[in-house]
Each structure stands twice: as structure tokens, then as C-alpha cells.
Design goal:
mainly alpha, Growth Hormone, Chain: A, 81% helix, 412 residues
Length: 412
């Protein structure tokens, strides 16, 4: 029987459609524009890649610090939507401001603020999954979020890409970037409104006399509990390693291709292809997961990413990058969607904000290690390929730990 989303589930999915437009811009046009600004300032290709990697690492480090704290506050009755709205607003506003900047340094500063707001909003958005659907629907709903996010983000991206590529013949580069960032921000904002209007927090903790203090007390209690819940702890440790590589590939794919000297237009079209390939692949896996345990599909995805990271060592042509883009598209959405729903099913629903704050530390927070590793090895060796291929070690460790966590979870 065909799977149908409820009205609230559709509105939750719509936010994925909105924020994914920002994600696609961050992995494509943002680094190319930064390369343009850095080139004007005389910065080398290796340093350009390193600075972009360091900026991304700072973003994820900030969210790793803020996530659990704000997540604990968000679990308080009626707080989750408020904090989510503030984080989303910071991201949208930062996206608008970026188009008006001509200094590479200020661009990186505002980028850090905007991406931190975006990443923080996802902590609360992911935690909303327990409120908008039931446990037996989580795998499918989470998968639909990523699937429609991938295909929906292509609409503002194609419009923005046409504007940017047409810069010079009708309008200047600065004007084209203002329009591109503004279109992305408006798409993100408008896609968020249906969820903001309809969402109600189903699972929560009652507010105490001092909300902030009681939230910290609950967070401390959860941190103690999670070390005793070994199946959750081991999954988070595995997730830390394998998703580290996934997010690093997303964050640095275009910057990597630019540093190798590949054609900018070809890189953008290849990453657009990633989005298009990801859409049917996520939906196909969401059907398979009804017959095959999600642990097996996540295992396949981690193994596939290990092979992708190894292949990246030999990447040096446009064709190689297109092959890499297709391979990433086949598994990127599925590994993210099923990891999110798998975690949502093994945690207490009333503590989803706290737990997803920790999940985000092990997720986007982990990519501090990945982006810093790529940047550091690239600068030390002078060979960008070595830095990227080193991610294969992260996937291998993640695979081993995840299989151990999956076996442990069966016994709970």
C-alpha cells in the first residue's frame, strides 16, 4: 500500500525542503563565491580550502556547544518552537546579509553565524519528529523529509545558478549574489511557515520555577543516564565517526573540486545531479526498510561511503567528480534519514530535545574533526587528495562501532 503523509507530517517535511536550499548553496555557490573573493585578495588555492574548512569547523563546534544546552531548554513545555524559530531566523537573516559582502574575511564571519543558526534549527527540527509522527512511521517520514528536501532545494538553486552564471552579461557578480542569497533565504523562510503555524509540542517537561537551571539539571541527569544506556551511547559513538565523513563531503565537495582546478559550472551541475539522484534513492530505500531492518541499510550506506572516500584519492578530472557526485547521491540522504529515525526510536520521547542536542554533537559537531583533518593534511602534504581520502578511516571505525551498537540494541 502506498505510504501517505498526514497534514502535520507534510508540514514537517516542508521545512526540510526549505533548509535544504541553504545546504545546497553552502556546498556549491558559497565556496565558489568565497573562492572569487579570496582570489581577489591573493589567497592561494590550498589556503582557500583550509580557511573554508576551518570556518566550517567553527560552525559545527559552536553548535556542538549550544545544542545540548538549548535542547534541554527546548524540552520544556512550549519552548521548542520558540527556540527553533530564533535559530531559523538567524540563519535566514545571515543568508541575506552574505550577498552584500565583498570582504572574504567578513564573508566567513557572517557565514559562521548563518550556518550556526541553520545547524541549531536542525537540532529542534529533528527533535520534533517524535511529536509529528508515530514510531512505526518514523523511518518513512524521515526519509520523505530528506527526499523532498533534495528535490525541492533544486528549484531555488537552479534559479540562483542561472542568475550567477549570467552575471557579467546583464548584471554584475555582486548583484547576482545578492539575488541568489535573497531567493534562498525567502524559500527557506516561506517553507518554514506551515510548520510554525501548526506544530504543537506533544512531549515535554513541565517548566519549573527556574527554567534555565532546571534544564541544566535535566541535562546533567541525561548525560549520566546515557552512559548507562550502552546501546544509545555506542550508537552515538559510531554516528560520530561515520556521519563525520558524510558532512565533510557535503561541506567541502565544491571547495575540493575548486582547489583541484575543475570547472566551476561543471562542479555545480554535478552537485545538482547529486540532489536529483538522491530523491528517488531515498524513497526507494524508505520502501526497502519496511522489509529489511534499518541497521542493514545503514551498514550498506557506511560501507558505500568508505569506498567513495577511497575513490576520492584518485579524483583529478571532471568525469571523476561526476561519478563521485552520483555515488554520493545514492546514499547521502538514506544514511542521514535512517540514522535520524533510528535514534528517535531508541530515545525517550519527552527528552528528544536533550538527546538530539547530543546527537548533533556527534553529527555536525563531529565534522569539526573531518573538515579540520582535510584542511590540515592538505596543507601539510600539499596534496588535497590525501586529505579527503583520509576520511575512509572515519567510515571504517564508524562501521565497526555501528555493527556493535546494532547487536547490542537487539538485546534491549
Amino acid at each position: 500500500m502506498k505510504f501517505k503523509l498526514t497534514a502535520l507530517e507534510k508540514k514537517w517535511v516542508m521545512y526540510d525542503v526549505g533548509n535544504s536550499a541553504f545546504t545546497l548553496m553552502v556546498s556549491t555557490i558559497f565556496p565558489i563565491y568565497f573562492n572569487y573573493l579570496a582570489g581577489n585578495a591573493g589567497i592561494s588555492d590550498v589556503d582557500y580550502l583550509a580557511y573554508w574548512g576551518y570556518a566550517t569547523s567553527i560552525c559545527t563546534l559552536l553548535v556542538a556547544i549550544l545544542g545540548p544546552t538549548l535542547g534541554a531548554v527546548a524540552d520544556t513545555k512550549n519552548y521548542k518552537k520558540v527556540i527553533f524559530s530564533v535559530a531559523m531566523g538567524i540563519g535566514v537573516l545571515g543568508c541575506v546579509v552574505l550577498g552584500f559582502l565583498s570582504s572574504w574575511l567578513w564573508f566567513l564571519v557572517i557565514f559562521v553565524i548563518a550556518k550556526t543558526g541553520y545547524s541549531a534549527s536542525l537540532v529542534f527540527y529533528d527533535a520534533m519528529l517524535t511529536d509529528v509522527t508515530e514510531p512505526d512511521r518514523m523511518d518513512s517520514v524521515s526519509s520523505h523529509g530528506y527526499a523532498w528536501g533534495y528535490i525541492g532545494s533544486c528549484i531555488p538553486f537552479v534559479i540562483s545558478l542561472a542568475i550567477v552564471l549570467g552575471a557579467g552579461s546583464v548584471i554584475g557578480m555582486q548583484t547576482s549574489m545578492i539575488l541568489a542569497f535573497l531567493i534562498t533565504a525567502l524559500w527557506w523562510l516561506c517553507s518554514s511557515i506551515p510548520l510554525l503555524r501548526s506544530y504543537r509540542q506533544k512531549y515535554f517537561s513541565e517548566p519549573g520555577e527556574h527554567v534555565i537551571r532546571s534544564s541544566f539539571v535535566r541535562l546533567g541527569r541525561t548525560l549520566r543516564e546515557i552512559t548507562q544506556q550502552k546501546h544509545i551511547f555506542l550508537f552515538l559513538l559510531a554516528f560520530f565517526f561515520y556521519i563525520d565523513g558524510v558532512y565533510t563531503v557535503i561541506d567541502m565537495a565544491t571547495a575540493y573540486g575548486q582547489a583541484l582546478g575543475l570547472d566551476s559550472t561543471g562542479l555545480l551541475l554535478a552537485l545538482l545531479l547529486t540532489q536529483i539522484v538522491a530523491f528517488p534513492c531515498v524513497l526507494i530505500f524508505s520502501r526497502i526498510v519496511k522489509k529489511v531492518r534499518p541497521e542493514k541499510i545503514i551498514t550498506i550506506c557506511i560501507a558505500a561511503y568508505f569506498c567513495i572516500a577511497v575513490y576520492a584519492y584518485w579524483l583529478d578530472t571532471q568525469l571523476d567528480f561526476w561519478i563521485l557526485a552520483v555515488a554520493v547521491g545514492m546514499f547521502q540522504g538514506t544514511i542521514q534519514a535512517l540514522s535520524r529515525s533510528y535514534f528517535a526510536k531508541i530515545i525517550p520521547a519527552e527528552k528528544s530535545g536533550e538527546y538530539f542536542g547530543l546527537y548533533d554533537i556527534c553529527g555536525k559537531g563531529a565534522s569539526v574533526l573531518g573538515t579540520a583533518l582535510v584542511s590540515f593534511l592538505s596543507q601539510i602534504t600539499g596534496q588535497i587528495n590525501i586529505g579527503v581520502s583520509a576520511l575512509s578511516v572515519m567510515f571504517l571505525i564508524g562501521l565497526i562501532l555501528f555493527r556493535a551498537a546494532a547487536e547490542m540494541n537487539k538485546k534491549v
